[in-house]
Amino acid sequence: MTKKQKLELTWVGKEKRPRLEPRILLEEPELSHHADHRGEREVFDNRLIQGDNLLALKALEAEFAGQVKCVFIDPPYNTGSAFAHYDDGMEHSLWLSMMRDRLELIRRLLSPDGSLWVTLDDNEAHYFKVMADEVFGRDCFVTNVVWEKSDSPRNSARQFSTDHDHVLVYAKGPEWVPRRLARTEEANAIYANPDDDPRGPWLPGDPYANKPYSKGLYKMVGPTGRTFSPPPGRYWRVSEERLRELDQDGRVWWGPNRSARPSIKRYLNEVGDLVPRTLWSKNDVGSNRTSKNELRALFPGDVSFDTPKPEALLKRVLDLATNPGDLVLDSFAGSGTTGAVAHKMGRRWIMVELGEHAQTHIVPRLCKVVDGTDPGGVTEVAQWKGGGGFRFFRLAPSLLERDKWGREVISKCYNAAMLAEALCKIEGFTYAPAETEYWMQGRSTERDFLYVTTQTLTHEQLRDLSEEVGPDRTLLVLCAAYRGDARGLPNLTVRKIPDHVRDRCEWGRDDYSLAVAALPEAEPKGQDAPAQATLFAEPTK
């Protein structure tokens, strides 16, 4: 492989990409919920969306592109076992295609300082990383956190009892850095004060460094006359002059008998918050057993979810990736843990879930959070008392449907307002109907507008509309039909619907879980193509 080549992962159907319809969202107020009183800094416009998450991500793109601070997803692990709420046994190619399509949209939704956190196990984590490196760029991979998910061995395991999952972290840009963690009693406990230093507890620091330092080669005479030099290949961390200054200030520890190798004191009151580490213990962020107990407390007797995530794990992620008020997204909502924790921590949130448990589990759980009747999880540590609210949405049906003659026509489910909003989204306009001008239904700039009507417009009507718009504004008119020649009206662009949008998207498709039979065969690559790691092919010798 030459220096100009890059390693890529390929799979059957990789080049096949869906042409997604940007659906509108329809609120169901009877499933939305909010507190009785509005408190300071409480958020009421959080969103729970039921529907295919690929279509939902596309639906969110126009409004939220570049605004999401943190995405946490717990996708199907592809273990070959059927979970209660989705098929977790997808063939590898399907799984990779499913995740690639969603990652591309997630990346567009992330803010410039945003980050993505993905929990996986060994079945797909390593394939996922190579694929995600292509989507985000390898320099945007941050780390692989190892989460201790199990609190006891599984003796029935054939080879190893798996104790951990991966949490793969990607950033929108390579300059991203996580927030630091608040100091804990355990972290502070290693500091002591054996010499009653008035500056308080301290920790002895290694005075030597591996990095060559021009002033780091000297001999230091201790209080008892003993001479100290750096070990072979190492150097003093500071110059001789600086080390003597520190000693005069009482910041050097020579041991209880003042004859030991010197250590430079690091005082507890001078250290900052903790840099996050990549090994997360069950004692710090909970285990699978923790999360199951949390759900049992919320839904006694219910065992619907096999691998929920503990609230403490989500709190750790949001502590590192967000500040209060930031927007958090989870497009594989599952039992709703991400939204519950984000709400308790004062973050805004959006969740997407396809299954019926969006209503049967997530809605009741979030209602308890809003009402302050969920005492478990991170409620106490977050000092959560209730408040705020959320809105429940469904994806609208496809804009076009087939009539009895097989022609694609506008769906009968769409009223005038829904049609205008849907066409605004497809055309890249913001749906914002004006109170005074009937034709100002959407806008892309301060002078560029969109108007939708199912009527057939006459040339006289178009001429009158052109005069109302005026010479300094432009209007895209989408109508069922029109008469006359609109080319003489330079401020109007007139198009027929549905003809104008018929070839834009895949209409009438509500499920993007894919099927093996629908995937094309992979085409052979030429000698000049990038080097590739190919699934289901023998490696080149």
From TrEMBL:
<dbReference type="GO" id="GO:0032259">
    <property type="term" value="P:methylation"/>
</dbReference>
<dbReference type="InterPro" id="IPR002941">
    <property type="entry name" value="DNA_methylase_N4/N6"/>
</dbReference>
<keyword id="KW-0489">Methyltransferase</keyword>
<dbReference type="InterPro" id="IPR002052">
    <property type="entry name" value="DNA_methylase_N6_adenine_CS"/>
</dbReference>
<dbReference type="InterPro" id="IPR029063">
    <property type="entry name" value="SAM-dependent_MTases_sf"/>
</dbReference>
<dbReference type="GO" id="GO:0003677">
    <property type="term" value="F:DNA binding"/>
</dbReference>
<dbReference type="GO" id="GO:0008170">
    <property type="term" value="F:N-methyltransferase activity"/>
</dbReference>
<feature type="region of interest" description="Disordered">
    <location>
        <begin position="522"/>
        <end position="541"/>
    </location>
</feature>
<keyword id="KW-0808">Transferase</keyword>
<keyword id="KW-0949">S-adenosyl-L-methionine</keyword>
<dbReference type="InterPro" id="IPR002295">
    <property type="entry name" value="N4/N6-MTase_EcoPI_Mod-like"/>
</dbReference>
<dbReference type="Pfam" id="PF01555">
    <property type="entry name" value="N6_N4_Mtase"/>
</dbReference>
<protein>
    <recommendedName>
        <fullName>site-specific DNA-methyltransferase (adenine-specific)</fullName>
        <ecNumber>2.1.1.72</ecNumber>
    </recommendedName>
</protein>
<comment type="similarity">
    <text>Belongs to the N(4)/N(6)-methyltransferase family.</text>
</comment>
<feature type="domain" description="DNA methylase N-4/N-6">
    <location>
        <begin position="68"/>
        <end position="359"/>
    </location>
</feature>
<dbReference type="GO" id="GO:0009007">
    <property type="term" value="F:site-specific DNA-methyltransferase (adenine-specific) activity"/>
</dbReference>
